[in-house]
Amino acid sequence: LAGIYIHIPFCKQACHYCDFHFSTSLKLKDQLISALLNEIRLQKSFGDNRIIETIYFGGGTPSLFSADELISIFNVIAQTVALSENPECTLECNPDDLSPEYLQNLFDSPVNRLSIGIQSFFDEDLKLMNRAHLSQHAHDCIQDALKIGFDNITCDLIFGSHSTTDQMWESNLQTLVDYQIPHISVYGLTVEPKTALSHFIQSGKYPSLDDSKYQAQFLKTQDLLCANGYEQYEISNYASNQKISKHNSAYWQGEDYLGIGPSSHSFYDGCRYWNVKSNVKYIEEIKKNLIPCEKEELTEYERYNEYLLTGLRTMAGCSFQKLKSFAVEIQNHFEAIAEELIDKKMLIRNEKAFYIPQEQRIFTDGITQELFYVV
Ligand code: SF4
């Protein structure tokens, strides 16, 4: 399994909690698209000996691109690397961009999975987060996408915000269940440095986030979604009818992926790469046929820690097979700590892997840190 991620670095406005790379000016859009196409060609060798099974347009806000612009990017990928027969092709999109006409154009394109940034069905939440859409847009786009025939839809929701009461959170979840959305991603609001949210909290405009609300809403999510037939296959991701994200699952299992676009990350052949976080510099360098990225070769310890970080977030867990690929001292370290965690019922061993039981998922970060190998 290998995947390609394309970063679309534009948004209509800055959400108060967001620290992703994007520009709110679309002035460089055409130049950026040319640069993306060029980078795909420059990265051709990633496709040597790899079949690409997933393509993921993330951002930023990829739904600011027309269906034709997205198709032109898809076509260059298809001309440059070998694609599997029916690759999963996901588009992150915002409700205010999803008119029925645009949705129909997407439905007729290679995009076969929509990832809709709903975040909440309550206008007070959306306003506080500075989202560009209203609750009505969220309902309309889901109904229109279902009517047009999209059957692989995932929606994002954010819990733990100042304005989100437990009742509102339950109602957000229930609304997606009622729409029979097959995949739901839930993210706890976090305060990232240099965001408007962080500024508001530091200046005393808002209080700090409430940990007990965070925990209660995390646990409510598990209860409500699992009772409605969803599987928490990753700490933030729930799927029904096996509609898991192939792209993200490959990433969590440590498979290779290539990131295209400013600020995108890649991981392959044991190395991590990250592209420059500036649209202007990215375009300039790509024009010279250079890929503006930094590279880091991971040590074996770092690769092990990274594998724990992603693997233990999933229900599939960390496999014996992969753990055996690490040096004996790392394996011994893992086994000694794992035994203690198993005794405390914080880890489970099945016939293939170690994983964190559902009732302990809320402690995933702490459990993972205990297993880290620190030199
Ligand atoms: S739309 Fe998405 S990427 Fe853009 S600012 Fe909001 S959360 Fe960040």
Number of strands: 15
Helix content: 40-55%
- Strand and helix order: EHEHEHEHHEHEHHEEHEEEHEHEHHEEH
Mean pLDDT: 97
Instruction: Name the overall outline.
Output: globular
Structural class: alpha/beta
Bound molecules: iron/sulfur cluster
The first-to-last residue Cα distance is 31 Å
What is Rg? 21 Å
Which strand order spans the largest sheet, edge to edge or round the barrel?
7-8-6-5-4-3-2-1-9
- What percentage of the residues does DSSP assign to strands (E)? 15-25%
Poorly predicted regions are none
Oligomer status: single chain
Major sheet attributes? 9 strands, mixed
Helical segment count: 14
Give an overview of the whole structure.
The longest helix is centred in the middle third of the chain and has 17 residues, at 211-227. The chain has helices at 29-42, 67-80, 100-107, 123-129, 135-148, 166-178, 196-202, 211-227, 246-252, 279-287, 300-311, 320-323, 328-343, 364-371, and strands at residues 2-8, 51-59, 82-93, 113-119, 153-159, 183-188, 231-234, 237-239, 256-260, 265-268, 271-275, 293-297, 318-319, 348-349, 353-355. The protein is of the alpha/beta class and 375 residues long. 40% of the residues lie in helices and 22% in strands. The chain is globular, with a radius of gyration of 21 Å. Bound molecules: iron/sulfur cluster (SF4). Iron/sulfur cluster (SF4) binds next to loops. The site of iron/sulfur cluster has 11 residues, from loops.
